[in-house]
């Protein structure tokens, strides 16, 4: 069991101070994210998670059931963070081009800042998505992301800015792919070509160009020409 501080009850006696259960859960999930993202499901050790959180294996199992359920909860937490960030972007208040640009930049920058999320997705692909398929939570989190992107596309089409025939799911795939590679293949890309693109200026340029590539794909020819002419 974790070492806990003691509190004076006013009568000279001391008793263990209680830990906030939600705080303990958050600490366990944070440590589990680090452990699983580095070592995978099979290589991740509950003992390491317990040591990092100053709790016990028994307490971890009490909160999460077993190792696989803890792994699933880490996946849910990771997807919840990125989807929550998307929902906070306020895309409905922006005109379509600005909304799509903001979404692209957010996705690229989120993935760059959260490499553990990318590693968790890679690990889950090794498991053929088995744990994601079991999670109603993750399916519920991801549906609104596609719906929000579809709303942006429909507004852009209604205003004559975006081409007809675009599919939100496919565009989501393209944005994710452009942003994912930047993290998933950083080590091999750097080993072959050097790390110039991964310095601050290089990452800012890539983030900007990802948004520009997506816009050039969705914009009507007239609007693409206007952006090219103005340099925006």
From TrEMBL:
Alphabetical list of SUPFAM superfamilies matching this protein: Homeodomain-like, Tetracyclin repressor-like, C-terminal domain
Record-linked Gene3D superfamilies: Tetracycline Repressor, domain 2
Keywords, in A-Z order: DNA-binding
GO MF annotation, one: DNA binding
Listed PROSITE patterns: HTH_TETR_2
InterPro entries registered for this protein in UniProt: Homeodomain-like_sf (IPR009057), HTH-type_TetR-like_transc_reg (IPR050109), HTH_TetR (IPR001647), NicS_C (IPR041474), Tet_transcr_reg_TetR-rel_C_sf (IPR036271)
Presence of the UniProt keyword Zinc in the record: no
Region Disordered, annotated ranges: 1-23
Domain annotation HTH tetR-type: ranges: 22-82
Residue ranges flagged as DNA-binding region: 45-64
Pfam families documented for this protein: TetR_C_29 (PF17938), TetR_N (PF00440)
Protein name stated in the entry: TetR family transcriptional regulator
Organism lineage: Bacteria, Pseudomonadati, Pseudomonadota, Alphaproteobacteria, Hyphomicrobiales
């Amino acid at each position: 069991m974790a070492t806990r501080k003691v509190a004076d009850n006013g009568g000279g006696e001391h008793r263990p101070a209680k830990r906030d259960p939600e705080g303990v859960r958050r600490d366990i999930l944070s440590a589990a994210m680090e452990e699983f993202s580095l070592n995978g499901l099979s290589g991740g050790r509950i003992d390491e998670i317990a040591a990092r959180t100053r709790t016990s294996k028994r307490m971890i199992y009490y909160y999460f059931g077993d190792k696989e359920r803890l792994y699933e909860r880490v996946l849910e937490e990771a997807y919840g963070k990125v989807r929550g960030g998307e929902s906070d972007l306020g895309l409905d208040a922006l005109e379509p081009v600005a909304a799509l640009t903001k979404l692209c930049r957010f996705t690229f920058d989120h993935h760059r800042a959260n490499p553990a999320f990318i590693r968790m997705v890679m690990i889950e692909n090794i498991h053929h998505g088995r744990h994601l398929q079991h999670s109603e939570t993750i399916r519920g989190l991801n549906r609104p992301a596609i719906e929000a992107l579809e709303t942006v596309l429909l507004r852009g089409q209604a205003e004559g800015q975006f081409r007809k025939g675009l599919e939100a799911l496919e565009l989501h795939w393209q944005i994710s792919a452009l942003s994912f590679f930047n993290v998933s293949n950083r080590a091999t890309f750097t080993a072959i070509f050097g790390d110039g693109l991964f310095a601050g200026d290089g990452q800012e340029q890539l983030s900007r160009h990802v948004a520009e590539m997506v816009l050039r794909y969705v914009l009507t020819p007239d609007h693409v020409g206007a952006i090219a002419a103005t340099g925006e």
